[in-house]
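Q: My labmate handed me this sequence with no annotations at all. I'd like to see what the chain might look like in three dimensions before we decide whether it's worth expressing. Could you predict it?
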Amino acid sequence: MSGIRFDISDSMRAREDKKRAEAQLLALVANAPVSINIRDAAGRYVVASPFASTLRRIPFQDCVGRTPHQIFPKDFADKVLAEDREILATKKTLRQEQIRHDQNGERIHAVVKFPILDDAGQAIGVGVINEDITERRSAEARINHLQKLEAVGQLTAGVAHDFNNLLTVILGNLELIDQYGVDDSFKARIGRALLATGQGADLTQKLLAFGRKMPLLPVVLDVAAQAAELRSMLERTLPESIAIELPPPTLAAWVRCDRGQLESALLNLAINARDAMPAGGGLTIGISSLAVGDDTKGALDLAPGRYVAIAVRDSGSGMSPEVLARAFEPFFTTKEVGRGSGLGLSMVYGFCKQSGGTATVTSALGQGTTVTLYLPEAAAPRPGAGNQSLSNNAAEPGRRERRILLVEDDENVRNTVAEQISHAGYAVTPASDSAEGLALLGQGRPFDLLLSDIVLPGPMNGKELADHARRTYPGIRVILMSGYPRGHVGEDGAAAARYAFLQKPVQRYALMAAIETEMRTDGAG
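A: Here is what I predict for the chain of 525 residues:
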């Protein structure tokens, strides 16, 4: 008896490896967090992942053997099969985003379709990977919106800087004309022009508030008490047809922010609410506390911590989705010409962001609007600690002969400020840039005071020039000024705090008061 023996160990191992690979592939399809399908050349499903059934709302087992026409509406099925035919013919991958609707509303899907090839390289089917990317696109939209607001904020800060320089020239010359003496008819005209200049300065403050570049004076305050103090002002501002509901003053909610800006924000929102309720309605200010953790910070764009939420609700006309999407944009307004600048909500948003919080708005047509301010919670002050407030009183400047070096690159601003200083009795030497300022510092008798713009052409900016002057002439006094707020041009706060600062446009009395105050110091810093 004879026979032939074959060693089939390798063949058995190969079959087992193939089974394991197939099992792993099926496990991948079954557990993937995306929809994975394969259709043959006739358009029938040969593989359908369980996740795919959540998109079609039918059991995935029931998909196998069916065609798109047995699952989807005809128009969509026709489109699917037409794309399949193109992929089979060209062997090219197709990538697209699709908008679909389900029980949760509109959803965005990223779809990748690719040819399935046999060993000979022939296309025998179409593979489809479908991922629901709605949340990702929503997050990207929020980031893009924030980036857009930041970019516009930078732009508005630059516009405000240039506008402040122009206002400095207008304001300074009007005050000089008034000071030199004119008859009563001209005084009235000058008064109106000065008032308009002040309104222009207020507008730049709103621009800076949107760009989160406005200097703030934060104090610890009780939001509920602040709202209670606003009641009388709200009652004067709003018609009797609008009912006002405020939180009880006993509900203490402490935050650290600029008192005046918080008051302006609440008044802005109240005025918006009034305009949205011409026939009357209700305005409610609610206060609550919330904790933001690492798992929830993204939804509100807030760092982890505790926050006080101030919700201002009205029962007015509400906003359409299109208007709501642009609510925080500067200069966007639905009010008629002359009734709004479009800076109200953007100013509120900028104030909250600069204070370490944020602001949100929810609204629907016919259902009113809620704007919520989120501000970092602060510890209640110790009894008797109180909050110091700055005095606005300025002493009348003297007319002592002191030498002042004025460094300002804008010729009109330089000439105007120089004349104001000279008219007050000081000896002023103007310089147009930091190089000229450096040269003048070393000539003749030392200067008593350096008054310099921060943004300067030449080898140094204003702060660097001040540092050099203070090192070289320890007794010199320094005042910095800028059309930008303090801290916007890159100097660190601790260093900048060594020098007095004037925000343009600066009124004559404030300029002279600052000079007089510095002249009373020893200038050692």
